[in-house]
Amino acid sequence: MERRSFIRIMGVGFAAATLTSSLSSCSTRDDKVDYGWNGPSDSESDIRLKVLAYAILCPNPHNKQPWFIKLNDSQHLDLYVDQTRLLPETDPFARQIHIGQGCFLETLTIAASGLGYQAEIEYFPQGEYSNTVVENLPVARVVLTKKTAINVDPLFKYILQRQSNKREYDNSRLSPVQKSQLQALPMAMQTSLTLQDSAPEITYLQQLLTEAMTIEVGNKARDLETIKMFRFNDQEVQKYRDGFGIEHSGVTGIKKFIIEGFLLDREKTEKDPSDFGKQSVDMTRSICESSSSFAWITTEGNSPLQQVQVGRDYCRLNLTTTAMGLAQHPMSQVLQEYQDMLPLQERFKQHFNIKAGQTVQMLVRLGKAEKTAHTPRRLVSSLLIG
Ligand SMILES: Cc1cc2nc3c(=O)[nH]c(=O)nc-3n(C[C@H](O)[C@H](O)[C@H](O)COP(=O)(O)O)c2cc1C
Question: Which domains are seen in the chain, by residue range?
């Protein structure tokens, strides 16, 4: 795809979208397909499958949905990493994959409370592995116990609304009340949340995160890993039920119809990802420049257990910002561990006085924006193993 023609069409699309409502209906994802966001079906009676129908809606890197579930007796299940769904190029030590496992466990626990159950979680019940290689051992054992009186987690009602909002924001800052609400969130031990909204630091971050994306797309294997999860059209979404597309950056209606129908081409993009890379950098620059609040979560250590616990905290942060009416978007490039990123990561850590032994696990932008479409989810049945 020619970059200039892409940008021109993006511009044309904006104007045309307001004119053509009939065309926009043929470019919107088939609303009849259930991609998970209605929660469990009313006829489902197995509590394990009910909580899983909520858990799959959690945030997770590249929407890989890297989980396997082993159902044991009627109230007990084990969660494993699906090792066919790792991101070796951009997440070489599966750190983000384990954060995703934590998001899964937190969403499951919140959902269980909403359904009158307590979820007891035992982490790594057959032993924790190292933080460099994923082993075929369960990440967690979950036991669900029916309770006659249980405090429903107030975040339960936001599970079906939560999302990672990748569109441009409106540059608004968080209010002092919003900042104190977020700072008051409980975090696991040795874990802290930093909020950043000072003007010079925001300018610094906007440039740094754009530079991080420039580094990320400077390698074909990394590009191909992302392109593999990028959904070029609705047919791909229906087929794979994972990944993400332009819709999740807020491109809808006729603009989506034109871009997906006439400009995006998987074969050409995979052959030469350079234009895809340039678009990613341009989009990163513009979404960063539209954002005036950022936040990050730091841990003292970096074990798989801590990564899972960060995932639980991160998921609560994402649900809390949903409850507060704020948009939130993770931007992980500068945190990634492949060699080319390490010098920039070091600069980021030095600039913000983050100690060498500390790991920044999640970095997000926060602000105000219209909602986007939800990313799809696979069926719970496809996660179950013998
Ligand atoms: C550990 C982790 C890292 C992520 N990093 C990024 C990122 O760098 N860029 C991005 O656009 N989204 C990132 N995301 C958001 C995912 O793309 C998103 O959660 C996934 O596509 C599912 O969409 P949803 O959160 O809207 O349901 C990340 C999410 C997690 C849990």
Answer: 3-33+165-367 (3.40.109.10), 47-160+375-385 (3.40.109.10)
